[in-house]
Here is the input.
Amino acid sequence: MSKKSATAEGHLAAGQGLMEKMVSLCKRRGFIFQSSEIYGGINSIYDYGPLGVELKNNVKKAWWQAMVQLKDNIIGLDSGILMHPKIWEASGHLAGFTDPLVDCKQCKKRFRADHLLKAKGLKPDFRPQDFKQHGLKCLECGGELTDVRDFNLMFKTFMGAVEDRASEIYLRPETAQGIYVNFNNVMTASRQRIPFGIAQIGKAFRNEITPGNFTFRMREFEQMEMQFFIEPEAEKQWFEFWQQERYGWYLNLGVNKNKLKFREHDKKELAHYCRAAVDIEYDFPFADRELEGVHNRGDFDLSRHQEYSGHDLQVAAESGQKFLPHVIETSGGVDRATLMFLLDAYTEVETRSGDEESKHETEVILKLDKRLAPIKVAVLPLSKKLDKEAREVFDLVRQSHMSQYDVAGAIGRRYRRQDEIGTPYCVTYDFDSVEDGKVTVRDRDSMKQDRVAIAELKDYLREKCNV
Ligand code: ATP
Here is the structure.
């Protein structure tokens, strides 16, 4: 084994260890559960527990703030998951939203043909008829593979009482189309002029052939997408702008810069609607993988909807001439980002508190950005005897911050429970507090302790938490 591959394997093994630890932490502490677990689970669907829903909401809040609240020319939308079926004809999804699928004739395992090629170090831009020439076999059992066939990723269902062809309808595989079909409505209602953007967060559904890696690839997931409508000449400038802007968003939320990178798609890799695409990738424990895509979609979508709906979707330029706006899209996954924030924040340290019972233990700290942390403040009475007074402090801080109250167990253990879920501030109410009206506030990262007057606690925390 070469030195290089030994190192790569070591990295992978360490990475897989991290994924296992993360899956276990997520279940144990109530971030993420396997869906339908008591019925044996359902593949590639996950439920967010009490802490997970807070974290995911905070991720969405941070995106909405950066993309809508703080931008002059971006407004929001929340469109339906079910839409007119013709939309998917116009968008090209009915014909083109497919993955190349092969089955193993022996063990029946199913693969994405492009993934098999990638695993062999071959470019995924093959022609199906070339596939056999590469002599590829099943990765599991070495068995012979079937021919490649296209598999449409859209989930189909029926609308209304009759289950016939005419009532077929699809669960949206992306949120973007809801934006395009509302383009005129939004522009008119909010008196926008080009350039402007429409942002949306919502569920999307894809019948992925090979889901996996926990919440990285699911069949039901959430997207946060923004379509930015521009003049065709401004394409290059805005494409570059949105790459930097979106990369900066992750950095601003504390993601390790060394783990983030751009990857440009080569022409053969581009989706059917795309003129150019750049992925923002993160060094996940299993591999460098896409977090978000920035796409130059040209006028593909609006021109198709104009054609299929018969509605004029052009806008007037300053010269009075009409044109179809071009689109730069930023398309990220809420679940993928949430998983990435968790992995990036995961830190192990030797026990820090120094109390007897925790000797030689490894402590986990989730160093989540304070804006993302599910619980901002924990109020911990030093003794059960202080329960009544400490609860009053809890009632005070919970008005402005998502807070927890914990009275059970040794104080060191209670601190560790909060570190493990990323709580940035622990407020301890002790016997002196009764006399001096002050509490001790401990910072998760610096371990610094401040003595703060209860009367000033809300302002102190507001300033510290930046929320
Ligand atoms: P991939 O190559 O990983 O399948 P994609 O190129 O199909 O992704 P897009 O269609 O560009 O992805 O979707 C935009 C974003 O939506 C992705 O960057 C990802 O964050 C998220 N996303 C897409 N598919 C899934 C999925 N099955 N599960 C979770 N998130 C997803």
